[in-house]
Predict the structure.
Amino acid sequence: MCTYITNKIDVQGSAKGGDGWFTAKEASVYLDHPVHAPYTHSLNIDFLNQDLGPSFRVAVELNPKDAVLLARTILDTVEAMSDLAEG
């Protein structure tokens, strides 16, 4: 189901595209029909820097179940890092 909901956040990081590394300044997350992945719908994540133009974008299309697993894994990893920093 397409919700047409896109969540955008500002980020500070780096992404590697076809022309090499660039500064990632924004991330977009949305559920839609994928362009390449073999699913009816996918959870899509784009990392981009609009200041540099449309080619400075890294796109990921994930199976929604795998997207949930990735989100949980990211949270677990960051929480483990926080525990180490506090200890």
About this structure: The two ends are 44 Å apart (CA to CA).
